[in-house]
Structures are given as C-alpha cells and as structure tokens.
C-alpha cells in the first residue's frame, strides 16, 4: 500500500513508524507488546527489502508496483529517548518528535540526542529532525486547544491529561509565529508539523496566512 501511494504521489511519500504509546492499539489487534522494539527493527528491514524488489516468500514473484523512490520512501522513526534514537540510527533517515509548545531548549536537546546517536552509529549523513505540536487559532482558540489536548492525553489518566492541557499555549497567531521563528533559528529542526486542535476551516486559512511569512 505504501509503495502504491509513493507511485501515485510521484515519489513524494515520507513514512513515519514507531512502537506507539497506547496499549489499546496492541489489544485491538490482539498483538503482544513483547519485543516490540526488535519487531519494529525487523519490520523496517522487511519494508526496505520488499521495496527493493525482494520476493515476499521463496519462489514468489517480485512485488509491485515498486516505489518511485529507489529502495522506497524515507523512513522516519517516532523517537523520544536515547535508546530509541540509537535503534533508529540503524535504519531511519531521521526522526519525528513532539513538543507541546515548541520549547526551544527541549527541541534543541532532542536534536543533539539524535545527532549523537547518528555519530555513535558511524553514520556520515546528517539525520533529519521533524517535530510536531498542537495548536489552535480563532476566537475560542485557548479553550479549543485545552479541550483537544486533554482528550488526546486521557490515555495517561485524567490528572495527567488536565495538567498537560493546562500547559498548552500555542493558541494565538503571535505566540505560534514566535515559537516557529525561534525553533527555526535556534534548534536545527528541519520541519515542524502543525496539528490543529479542530477541523474548522478557519484554522487552516489562518495557518496558511501565518506560514506564508516563513
């Protein structure tokens, strides 16, 4: 399916993979969480093999369509800690992280952690670093952002969800623009994924106006 998307998109697909933080994801598939890190490493290698034309089983025909990008789309690892970063350095082109408020110091430390993992793995290429944040724009943006953030983090318990939501601050154009500018100038991040807290088209319109200045 990913190879087909890469063909349809003329080779513009990037793929992010990770073990996930929600036990319900595994339960819904009746899958074990045991050895999930090792399984992810093996799955990444399996993807690369299939995308390079390796038959899925002995005697089976070559899979197809092959991706437009040689060897398949770039793989990004969902990484938050140094152990995961070291594993990712074996197969990923970079990592994706998360920063609630695009905290410059926290993002900078994450970038340094990834660069260290790449160096220790003997990689000569520079890792790409992508981070993401929640945000909202509009008249009720602070409340919308808090509500969305609390619902998202409910998996970690009501108290933790409320505490995290109370810290979410990217709810006006000025604050978001300043955060994006600082992250761009001071951290070495390659890309920021903006995750809107609501599906209101007005947020998309306001976001388009904001990012056009970058």
In words, what does this structure look like?
The protein is an alpha/beta fold and 214 residues long. Helix content is 47%, strand content 11%. It has helices at 2-8, 23-28, 36-51, 82-88, 104-120, 141-152, 158-167, 173-186, 201-211, and strands spanning 15-17, 75-78, 94-96, 128-135, 191-196. A five-stranded parallel beta sheet has the order 1-2-3-4-5. The two termini are 34 Å apart.
Helix content: 40-55%
- What's the number of extended β-strand segments? 5
- What percent of residues are in strands? 5-15%
Can you write the helix and strand succession as a string? HEHHEHEHEHHHEH
Derived from helix and strand composition plus strand pairing, the structural class reads alpha/beta
Shape: globular
Spatial strand sequence of the major β-sheet: 1-2-3-4-5
- Our measurement of the CA-to-CA distance between the termini, rounded to an integer number of angstroms, reads 34 Å
Mean pLDDT: 94
Task: Please tally the helical runs, counting DSSP H or I stretches of 4 or more residues.
Answer: 9
Features of the shown structure:
alpha/beta, single chain, 214 residues, 5 strands, 5-stranded parallel sheet
């Amino acid at each position: 399916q990913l190879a087909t998307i890469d063909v349809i998109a003329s080779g513009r697909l990037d793929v992010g993979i990770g073990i996930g933080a929600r036990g319900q994801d595994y339960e819904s598939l009746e899958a074990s969480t045991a050895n999930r890190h090792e399984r992810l490493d093996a799955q990444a290698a399996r993807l690369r093999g299939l995308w390079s034309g390796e038959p899925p089983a002995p005697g089976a025909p070559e899979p197809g369509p092959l991706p437009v990008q040689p060897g398949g789309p770039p793989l990004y690892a969902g990484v938050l800690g140094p152990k995961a970063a070291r594993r990712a350095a074996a197969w990923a082109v970079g990592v994706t992280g998360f920063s609630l408020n695009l905290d410059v110091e926290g993002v900078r430390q994450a970038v340094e952690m990834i660069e260290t993992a790449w160096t220790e793995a003997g990689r000569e290429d520079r890792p790409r670093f992508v981070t993401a944040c929640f945000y909202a724009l509009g008249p009720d943006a602070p409340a919308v952002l808090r509500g969305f953030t609390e619902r998202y983090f409910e998996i970690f318990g009501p108290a933790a969800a409320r505490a995290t939501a109370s810290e979410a601050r990217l709810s006006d154009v000025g604050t978001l623009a300043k955060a994006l500018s600082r992250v761009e100038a001071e951290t070495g991040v390659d890309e920021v994924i903006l995750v809107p807290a609501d599906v209101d088209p007005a947020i998309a319109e306001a976001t388009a106006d904001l990012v056009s200045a970058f």
